[in-house]
Design a protein that fits this description.
It catalyses: 3-methyl-2-oxobutanoate + acetyl-CoA + H2O = (2S)-2-isopropylmalate + CoA + H(+). By secondary structure, the chain is an alpha/beta fold. The protein is built from eleven helices and nine strands. The protein has three domains: 2-126, TIM Barrel; 147-254, Helix Hairpins (Orthogonal Bundle); 261-363, Double Stranded RNA Binding Domain (2-Layer Sandwich), CATH 3.30.160.
Length: 365
């Protein structure tokens, strides 16, 4: 029949005929459908004058697979619907089909750079919402809750930025290879804020990534472990997702400087740094003075002179944001008696930030 119609219409390469071969009801596996398309591709007369088209439905849930295999078998055209709308279970989803090609480095020649705008239009026209886990377009498709997934994504982002910098490329234009994210969410107009979200399944990697990306706080590994346990407890208690803002509030409550330091000064001399400081101990204002190789060591000597057995195990410092006016963040790990505790200090002055961090750590005991 197809050959007789091609002859009747006198199809030519300049005036080709479209032969559309639908799977009106999907009744076979995708490979069988592809075999049928290949048979037609090989046996059609005037093949260069024919555009071989397919129209898969999704009754078996394999409409996209049928379309992809049909194209490999010789089809040149695919009919479908955005987000798989259509009768019964719908036609093949052109969004998934196109972005599967994009994920493999093939330009589908369909502009989905603002996928949420496309989705809103489709939902408005059809009065049918797109499922939150629909491939590429759902609300949760670029979101990881699992701790192992979050850790892999965090490391993948870091590797992506590093490899882009090593190649002298902007991260947005570098080849994409981040675990659990088959495409760069930015390619479809999504940002990275929702890539990692925190609930009771989340681990230290996701928590650390969120604090770093949203608040510029880079957590040392041991602090990641310590804070993750507190986040797990909070998530289990509430049974809810923890937002980035709530995560930051919890972090500040657990480790942030709460006040208690009075006036202080540092004098640099040939014998070291002389620190004079006023601070609160159990509600009583006390003062102390000590000389050491640096202000942090001097602070620990002042504390020890007041009966606090403290040893600074590690001190991590970085700027919270880029720019000369950024606050300095200090994360202090201290041993107080037989306990290991953490404190965070933030201040424009690096010295003040460090003294606050040590004081906050000691204040937890």
């Amino acid at each position: 029949m197809c050959n007789s119609l091609t002859r009747l219409w006198d199809a030519s390469p300049d005036r080709p005929v479209i032969h559309n071969l639908p799977a009106t009801v999907e009744v076979s596996t995708p490979n069988v459908y592809a075999d049928q398309i290949e048979h037609m591709h090989r046996h059609l007369e005037r093949r260069e004058s024919v555009i071989l088209s397919v129209h898969p439905h999704n009754d078996r849930g394999t409409g996209v697979a049928c379309a992809e295999l049909a194209v490999l078998a010789g089809a040149q055209r695919v009919e479908g619907c955005l987000f798989g709308n259509g009768e019964r279970t719908g036609n093949v989803d052109l969004v998934t089909l196109a972005l599967n090609l994009h994920a493999q480095g093939v330009d589908p020649m369909i502009d989905l750079s603002d996928i949420d705008a496309v989705r809103r239009t489709v939902e408005y026209c059809n009065r049918i919402p797109v499922h939150e886990r629909h491939p590429y377009g759902g609300d949760l498709v670029y979101t990881a809750f699992s701790g192992t997934h979050q850790d892999a994504i965090k490391k993948g982002f870091a590797e992506h930025r590093a490899s882009a910098a090593a190649a002298g490329l902007d991260a947005a234009s570098a080849p994409w290879a981040v675990p659990y994210l088959p495409i760069d969410p930015a390619d479809v107009g999504r940002d990275y804020q929702a890539v990692i979200r925190i609930n009771s399944q989340s681990g230290k990697g996701g928590i650390a990534h969120l604090l770093q990306s949203e608040y510029g706080i880079t957590l040392p590994r041991r602090l990641q472990i310590d804070f993750a346990a507190k986040v797990q407890e909070a998530a289990d208690s509430s049974g809810l997702e923890i937002t980035a803002e709530e995560l930051w509030t919890l972090f500040c409550a657990e480790y942030g400087y709460r006040g208690g330091l009075g006036r202080w000064s540092v004098e640099h001399g040939t014998d070291g740094d002389r620190l004079f400081v006023v601070f609160d101990v159990d509600g009583v204002e006390v003062s102390g003075e000590a000389v050491a190789t640096g202000p942090v060591e001097a602070m620990t000597r002042v504390l020890m002179s007041k009966g606090v057995d403290v040893d600074v195990l590690s001190l991590t410092q970085h700027s919270q944001r880029s720019g000369s006016d950024s606050a300095a963040i200090t994360l202090a790990e201290c041993r107080v008696g037989d306990r290991t505790v953490w404190g965070m200090g933030s201040h424009q002055s690096v010295t003040a930030s460090a003294i606050r961090a040590v004081y906050r750590a000691v204040s937890t005991c």
